[in-house]
Specification:
73% helix; 5 helices; 115 residues; rod-shaped; mainly alpha; single chain
């Protein structure tokens, strides 16, 4: 995902640079934004790619941290999660059973007081 976002961001930088250059023509240079910089297209794409990759990587790590936190809370105290967020606890249990059908359930009924 991060790689794809980097490519899209790099291409977007090239498109935006072309739009700016077409609206502000400079007969002296091919690029209004990058001026006399040789190989400016490569520089522009790599700059956009790097920025897009770093920002998306940071965002993906935030999401990953939130998911990991939820799983740890669920594994640590499934009864409390079920009491406070029953729908979320049910979805987590169903997803776990679907992903690992032959495993021991993490939330047997005795933890919830159901059985």
């Amino acid at each position: 995902v991060t790689f794809c976002i980097g490519i899209i961001t790099g291409a977007s930088v090239l498109i935006i640079e072309r739009i700016i250059t077409l609206r502000n023509p400079d007969p002296e240079f091919e690029s209004y934004v990058f001026g006399p910089l040789p190989h400016w297209r490569i520089f522009a794409f790599l700059t956009g790619f790097l920025i897009g990759s770093v920002v998306s990587s940071i965002m993906m790590h935030v999401v990953k941290g939130a998911v990991n936190t939820l799983i740890v809370c669920w594994a640590d105290n499934p009864k409390q999660l079920k009491e406070e967020h029953p729908e979320l606890a049910r979805k987590l249990r169903d997803a776990w059973e679907q992903a690992f059908p032959n495993s021991t359930p993490l939330d047997p009924p005795m933890l919830y007081g159901d059985g």
